[in-house]
Design brief:
Layout lengths: L1 E3 L1 H8 L3 H8 L3 H10 L6 H11 L3 H4 E3 L4
């Protein structure tokens, strides 16, 4: 399973989801939807936007864990 670490990175950087919405020019609803969609599918556009706004790499943004 792939874990999307957006909320964890936001917390570490002292930033909010509202801040990220402003950076990506998306609604709070769409941000939450895309974060939760990480369990199914997510747009490359959002992955790139998360990395740029949060100044992180894909390795930091995504974690792969064994399904158990």
């Amino acid at each position: 399973m792939i874990i999307l670490n957006v909320e964890k990175i936001l917390k570490e950087q002292g930033k909010t989801k509202s801040w990220l919405c402003d950076q990506l020019d998306i609604s709070f609803y769409n941000l939450n939807k895309s974060i939760k969609a990480g369990k199914k599918s997510i747009s490359y556009k959002y992955l790139e936007g998360f990395c740029k706004a949060l100044n992180c790499s894909f390795d930091e943004l995504l974690t792969i864990v064994d399904d158990e």
